[in-house]
Amino acid sequence: MGEIERKLGLRIKELREKQELTQLKLAEILNMEASNLSKIERGVQIPKEESLEKISTALGVEVKELFNYEHFTDKKNLITQINRILEVSDDKTVQKYYKLLINL
Q1: What is the topology classification, in CATH, of domain 3-70?
Q2: How does pLDDT run across 63-75, given as a tens digit for each residue?
Q3: What is the enclosing helix (H) or strand (E) of 83?
Q4: Taking 80 as the threshold, does the pLDDT of residue 104 lie above it?
């Protein structure tokens, strides 16, 4: 199982749960075996392009939204990405980010 497959599966599961759909119900909507949907959500199987389109339609999102899984990145990579953003930001922007963080 690759990292992309794992994150894609987590994202599909996240969106499914947001819609308050069970795996069984979504599988029925997709005309797919629930076991295949389970494999996709676990990152064991990557869906074909046609299935990605059906999944996105059923979940009410664009296909590209299925690949919006940056929030599943581990802490070390997130810190690295944040540091890159801060390094290229001007002083005023860095101060805004700081205030935002301390007020969370």
Answers
A1: 434 Repressor (Amino-terminal Domain) (1.10.260)
A2: 999 999 878 777 8
A3: helix 75-88
A4: yes
